[in-house]
Amino acid sequence: MAFTAKDVQELRAITGAGMMDCKKALTETDGNMEKAIEKLREKGMATAAKKAGRIASQGIVDSYIHMGGKIGVLLEVNCETDFVARSDAFKDFVHDVALQIAAAKPSYVVIDEVPAAELEKEKEIFRAQALNDPKPRPAAIIEKMVEGRIQKFYKEVCLMEQDFVKDPGKTITQYLNETIGTIGEKISIRRFVRYEMGEGLKKKEENFAEEISAQVAKAQANANK
Fold first, then answer.
1. Relative to the CA of 48, which of 13, 107, 127, 206 has its CA 20 to 30 Å away?
2. Where are the transmembrane segments (predicted)?
């Protein structure tokens, strides 16, 4: 049984798992949606799947200002109850996500938010780059190369696909699912706005991801003293 990109998106909506995890699960189950859900549950995503249909109408709007006032983030994260919204675990998660946005510069929360026109433009750029390569390649290979680059593009612009700055061994989606399992409620990252001082103007390039990683390492070192 074959499956489509729409099936991958549907599985992601049901389970909260990453796009690549959903695609792999559908591949392993020959496109069977129910079996794919079970496969993801076996891999530790059962909690997210069980809670996916609940309504998350509580939560908080948090802000993060980067040291020196260079970057500001406003972020809304929802949960199911006011009790959880006031908990330290939830607040810590929201703060971590705000820090992630400041460091990694995502433009969207999830893949579905990427405008079709922007996605097509990126595909055309990647396709042109592949066609301009001196080494000739079959059309099917070129399309696979384009798809691979699009996946990298998603990791750059979509928050949920990004590697977690404080723990690069996991994605934000995985961190979200872990937090759902810990807290016991559905959590939804709804929206964010990121501001950067002088954005659009010529300025010295700085790697904020490395700077924040250094701050985290310093804080951990101080805690271990």
1. 107
2. none
